[in-house]
Amino acid sequence: MFRRAYSTATANGLKKTPLYDLHIKYGADMVDFAGYSMPVLYKGQSHIDSHKWVRSKAGIFDVSHMLQQNLKGDDVIPFLDKITPSDFKASKPWANQLTVLLNQDGGIIDDTIVTKHDDDKNFYIVTNAGTREKDLEFFKNESQPFDVKFEQIDNALIALQGPLASKVLQNFTNEDLSKIYFGNSKIIKIPGFNNLDIHLARGGYTGEDGFELSIPKDVSIEFTEALLENKDEVRPIGLAARDSLRLEAGMCLYGHDLNDTITPVEGALSWVIAKNRRDPNVNKFNGSSKILGQLADRSLVKQQRVGFTSKGPAPREGTEIYSKEDPEKKIGVVTSGSLSPSSSERINIGQAYVERGYHKSGTPVLVKIRNKLRDATIAKQPFIPSNYYRG
Amino acid sequence: MFSRSLLRSSSATSRLMLNNTLKLSFRYQSSLIGKFNKESLINTYSKGPIDLRFTEDHEYVAAHPDQTAFIGITKYASDAIGDVTFVELPEIGDKIDQGDVIGSIESVKSSNDIFAPISGEVIAINEQLNDNAPLVNSDPLGDGWIVQVKVEDAEQLKELQNEQEYEESLKQDA
After folding, report:
1. Could you tell me the pTM of the whole model?
2. Taking an 8 Å Cβ-Cβ cutoff, which residues of chain B contact chain A?
3. Predicted local distance difference test score (pLDDT) of residue A209
4. CATH for A302-391, options being 2.40.30.110, 3.40.30.10, 1.10.287.1770, 3.30.830.10
């Protein structure tokens, strides 16, 4: 079979994903993202065009820079029980679980999607690009007492996202996609590509219906271009819109909205802590005494992740937040913020950490931009209704 | 990022984006400065002649014989910023000194300071931008003007670049 020869680094030393040549062909502006040369915008589409396209049609994102691994062995469950607050014993095969990797202090090392495959000895795990080295070191250290083995998967990973994603993909497979619901995975066959096996996970990072597809890299460009032939439905979309889409969907960007000093309770991710793992006498996981302590007594939570909205200039990462009653009193800081491109009223949205007491939706606060205090309001996330396929 | 300072951007992502956009969008395009829109107020305000000047921050100053001048940004700058979503304007009556931050131009992901290219007093602001910020993209040297100032020191104008010098400086940047 024909094999494409890859060069794996650009002239300026950035790593290339298997789809690099496709990005260039489609006129992408490439930027350094976590050491990879990644597309930020494609020719002929502005940021807002790209964003709205994904909300109304379908977009393809290259997320091959993320780390995909198979996790195997007799001790996968006890290992995951130690490093996450989730219950993987109870999770169903081929169900995707969003969880967090925890350090000894209960801080979040990374957020991740973990999928049990056929049984308790076989899992698939996807972690972030920006934390690759740290995560690998963490897995290596944490897994030492356990019978677990990590295998890096050298595939391309693309996300096909938007209300037309399913319609487009259905043309490539005999698998009935209407039977695969949000949050589930399956290996599907692609007859037009020699019965190629693709690992499909229904979900994504935009709030829309869609899929993350793990594709052998030799055929990843051909397959992605085949999807893109549906020009009226599918376009390649870059990092610019990826960020504004995820922000509207209320999702965290690790390294901005989460870091390794933040616990899941502070990060407003208490829901990832499984119900049956909340008894501090029975269950131990990394940082469990601190995390479960915060769950039981919220006064131990000093700051908490919230959403907010405002008008006028957009609060950005680092923008300080002040109390409305006492404008001298700093109560928090913005971690992500921008205009919401889907909003016809030009509302700004974002995420921030604020002191408890100011965290309730509807609380008026002040944000300091160019030395002027301006009104903002703590708000519920997501900022747009999610559009997942639940059958 | 612009090597000079109009686009002091507040987020790392956008800095990268700008840098990149600029490199790719530049070479041999004729429309870097933008088309001077003769139908717009920046031209029709007086019978002229108009002294059109540029700064290293990619701003323009269109000075009229009555010692007032319209200030905006060039197409080179507005292309680099991308979809303009919001423009923060100064207030009428504000006294500005050359180099002061007098407002900002935002895209979805970046905030970019507007620096006063000359000293003076703000005598008009383009209120159309409150409802239609994308005018800065579609007609930067026209209906997308930002403020009009009463020029304090005509000598400052002479020190700014003329059209040819500005175009030359863009070529060297690329």
Report:
1. 0.90
2. 10-11, 13, 16-17, 19-21, 24, 82-83, 85-86, 88, 101, 104, 106-109, 111
3. 98
4. 2.40.30.110
The low-confidence residues of chain A, meaning pLDDT below 70, are: 1-7
Q: What are phi and psi of A41, to 5 degrees?
A: -150, 150
CA angle A290, A293, A294 (to 5 degrees): 90
pLDDT the model gives residue A269: 97
* A243 vs B contacts (CB less than 8 Å): 13, 109
Percentage of chain B lying above the pLDDT 70 cut:
81
Give yes or no for A372 touching B (CB within 8 A).
no
CATH class of A1-249: alpha beta
pLDDT digits (tens, 9 = 90+) for B28-83: 344 678 888 989 999 999 998 999 999 989 999 999 999 999 999 999 999 999 99
The answer to whether A224 contacts chain B (CB < 8 Å) is no
How many whole angstroms separate alpha carbon B72 and alpha carbon B76? 12
> What band does B13 get if pLDDT is binned at 50, 70 and 90?
very low
What is the predicted pLDDT for the residue at B170? 85
Structure tokens at A24: 């260039």
Start-end of CATH 3.30.1360.120 domains in chain A: 1-249
Mean pLDDT of B99-126: 94
CB contact under 8 A, B16 and A338: no
Selection from A46, A34, A4, A17 nearest residue A235 by Cα: A46
CB contact under 8 A, A318 and B86: no
Q: Which residues of chain A does B109 touch, with a Cβ-Cβ cutoff of 8 Å?
A: 47, 240, 243-244, 338
The answer to whether A94 and A47 have CB atoms below 8 angstroms apart is no
Residues of chain B positioned with their CB less than 8 A from the CB of A41? 17, 21, 82
A244 and B101: CB-CB below 8 Å? no
Q: Taking a C-beta distance cutoff of 8 angstroms, is the pair A270, A111 a contact? A: no
- At A363, the amino acid letter reads T
DSSP state of A313: S
Q: What is the average pLDDT value for chain B, to the nearest integer?
A: 83
Q: Cβ contact (<8 Å) for B106 and A314? A: yes
Cα A212 to the chain's mean position, in Å?
11
Mean pLDDT over residues B96-105, rounded? Answer: 93
Nearest-neighbour CA in chain A from B104: distance (Å): 8
Q: Do A312 and B88 touch (CB under 8 A)?
A: yes
Domain B4-173: state its class.
mainly beta
Residue B9 has pLDDT above 60, yes or no: no
* ipTM of model: 0.83
Q: Could you state, in order of their start, the residue ranges of all structural domains in chain B?
A: 4-173
- Which among A40, A338, A370 is the nearest to B104, CB-wise? A370
- Name the nearest CA neighbour of A265 among A297, A236, A234, A309: A297
Contacts of B13 in chain A (CB under 8 A): 31, 40, 239-240, 243
User: Residue A128 has which token pair?
Assistant: 């972030």
